[in-house]
Amino acid sequence: MNKINFNNKKTTPCKIVCVGRNYVDHIKELNNEIPSEPIYFIKPNSSISEDIIWREGMHYEGEISFLIKDKKIIGVGFGFDLTLRNIQSKLKQKMLPWERAKAFKGAAVFSDFMLCSDFEGLEVEVIKNGETVQRGGVELMMYKPDFLVRDIDEIFGLDDFDIVMSGTPKGVGEVEKGDEFIGRIYKDGKILVEKSWRVS
Ligand code: ZN
User: Fold this and answer.
1) Which residue segment(s) compose the domain that 128 sits in?
2) Domain holding 105: CATH number?
3) Which of 44, 62, 72, 121 is the most buried (most CB within 10 A)?
4) What residues have their beta carbon closer than 5 A to ion ligand 1?
């Protein structure tokens, strides 16, 4: 099983529950409809990777990611919900499930997770080749983290060290070989955690 770092210890998330279309500005950029209830999909533990490995048509989506224990948020980290946009578009058209586009090996890439039990003032930033391409935070989310955790637990059940990825702000785009990415989480305007990657 793949592990992530939380507070200087290794933990094993069983699953990652992702929220689709949680920022209005990102819904508009993909010409999607505003959902009447949250959209969820799941990435398995086997999709977790330390590195970003290039694949054709792959987009980055930077997301505030929460670590769960006892049905509550205990940690926060930066996460990439990597998406094969070309395949996802075809699956959407045919009303088919998204796993091939969202749950493949290497589709979930995280920074370390830091202790954090409240979500006020959290923001995510993605810097691609030195330029900020995404920045947004909890105040722009349609469904807030406390609601999402309760709702997801009711529907799927949340186990200790599962991860909830809370959706992506506008500015998603393609990943190319050799790209340099920095993913950051801010708390009240200060950097809480960051990690950098070079796409291989
Ligand atoms: Zn996403």
Assistant:
1) 4-198
2) 3.90.850.10
3) 62
4) 61, 81, 168
